[in-house]
Specification:
The radius of gyration is 14 Å and the shape is globular. The protein has one domain: 3-Layer(aba) Sandwich (Rossmann fold). By secondary structure, the protein is of the alpha/beta class. Helix 6 links the parallel strand 6 and strand 7. The strands form 2 sheets. It has a 5-stranded parallel sheet with strand order 2-1-5-6-7, sandwiched between helices. Strands 3-4 form a two-stranded antiparallel sheet. It contains 7 helices and 7 strands, in the order αβαβαββαβαβαβα. Helices cover about 40% and strands about 15% of the residues.
Length: about 150
């Protein structure tokens, strides 16, 4: 375990609080990992909020949810229905992570999950120092299933 990977106890605590997951980089292409992971999480009862500027500008949806240009747009829209984002599950390239972390901090979002291959230690440290729960370099779906299977 690295400083950017939560213990099983901390993962269970995080997972118990997560109902709504924003997914920057969620692709409408069903063969992409972002789609597959998000579809599984949706089947597990979690609401998925696509963050995909291209899809959003076309007024389209992914997994039955409207896509948003940015996390800020999603937060604003969800506030109108008294819903908040509990976790940001990032499927963007590592070079885009610092700007996302700045947005997460500015919006006071509670947790970020940087998926397998999305590694940016300075940004992860900045998020932690701002009080954001961080997990990096693992698959949300895999960890969720692993811990649920232990019950």
């Amino acid at each position: 375990m690295t400083p950017f990977q939560l213990s099983d106890q901390d993962l269970r605590s995080l997972f118990s609080r997560v109902q709504t997951i924003a997914v920057p980089g969620l692709s409408p292409k069903t063969h992409r990992p972002s789609y597959g992971v998000s579809a599984v999480m949706q089947r597990l009862g979690k609401r998925i909020i696509p963050i995909n500027p291209v899809v959003a500008r076309q007024n389209q949806s992914i997994l039955g949810e409207p896509a948003y240009v940015s996390l800020a747009d999603a937060v604003e829209a969800l506030a109108r229905e008294n819903t908040r984002i509990d976790l940001v599950d990032v499927f963007r390239s590592a070079d885009q992570v610092p700007a996302l972390i700045d947005e997460i901090i500015a919006l006071a979002l509670p947790a970020v999950w940087l998926q397998v291959g999305v590694i940016h230690e300075p940004a992860a440290l900045k998020a932690q120092q701002a009080g954001v729960v961080v997990d990096m370099g693992r698959c949300l779906k895999v960890e969720w299933r692993r811990l649920l299977a232990q019950r």
